[in-house]
Amino acid sequence: MARFIGRENVRKRLEPLESGPGRTTYADGAVRIETADKTISVRPPFGLAHARTYESVELAPLFEELARDHVVAALLVRLGGYAVGVFEGERLVASKAGTRFVKGRHKKGGSSASRFRRRREEQERGLIEAAAETAQRVLEPHRARIEHVALGGDRAAAARACEQLPWLAEKQLPRFFTVPEPRQRELERLPYELYAAEVSEERR
């Protein structure tokens, strides 16, 4: 099963294999490392352009990619709150978080349920609009430099906010970052996950 592992931990884990016997294949944005007793696949979070096969364990191209810093925008949205940030490498250089009350779901039927549903839908729209407006204010000054966009929180809520800023979707990372609450502290913890590589290992 694949796991996401921080870039420094990936390096520490694989360094002992460097230049040893085996086979290394770089292709399709990932690297496959085959040794006598196991096969390890690593997919860096921002891709891997290098493409080549080596008849030994050659990890320099992987390590170079893992060490590379990027400018990444983050938009975390969940019913009840949102957080927006810009990272230069692992440093948070701009951010804003906010909350918006959204009622829980109504369990009874009848006209009261219809009123409740309409009110909840209005609150949801207000939250999404606030998240999108905040994203516009925080991200626009950095737009020309932003290479990637990380979406997180709740998939449906984040997607609705992203729809209002189409350029975010164009740079969206494949991985979705699930967070319990979109708060400033979650933004500050995000760099480890942003730079974590997807690693899977199979024993022979």
Brief write-up:
The chain is of the alpha+beta class. The protein contains 6 helices and 10 strands; from the N terminus they run E-H-E-E-E-E-H-E-E-E-H-E-H-H-H-E. It has 2 domains: 3-68, no CATH class; 71-194, 2-Layer Sandwich (Nucleotidyltransferase, domain 5).
Structural class: alpha+beta
How many domains, in number, for the residues? Answer: 2
Identify low-pLDDT runs.
none
Number of strands: 10
Distance between the termini: 15 Å
Named CATH topology of the largest domain = Nucleotidyltransferase, domain 5
Largest sheet: 6 strands, antiparallel
Hey, roughly how much beta strand do the residues contain? 25-35%
The geometry reads as elongated
Report the CATH C-level class of the largest domain: Alpha Beta
What would CATH call the architecture of the largest domain?
2-Layer Sandwich
The CATH superfamily name of the largest domain is eRF1 domain 2
- Give the helix level as a range of percent: 25-40%
Structure, explained:
By secondary structure, the protein is of the alpha+beta class. The protein folds into 2 domains: 3-68, no CATH class; 71-194, eRF1 domain 2 (Nucleotidyltransferase, domain 5, 2-Layer Sandwich), CATH 3.30.420.60. It has helices at 7-14, 60-67, 111-139, 155-163, 166-170, 184-194, and strands at 3-5, 23-27, 30-34, 38-43, 52-54, 71-78, 81-88, 91-99, 148-153, 197-203. The strands form 2 sheets. Strands 1-10-4-3-2-5 form a 6-stranded antiparallel sheet. A hairpin with a 3-residue loop joins β3 and β4 (38-43). α3 crosses α4 (155-163). The longest helix is centred in the middle third of the chain and has 29 residues, at 111-139. It is elongated. The model has no long low-confidence stretch (mean pLDDT 91).
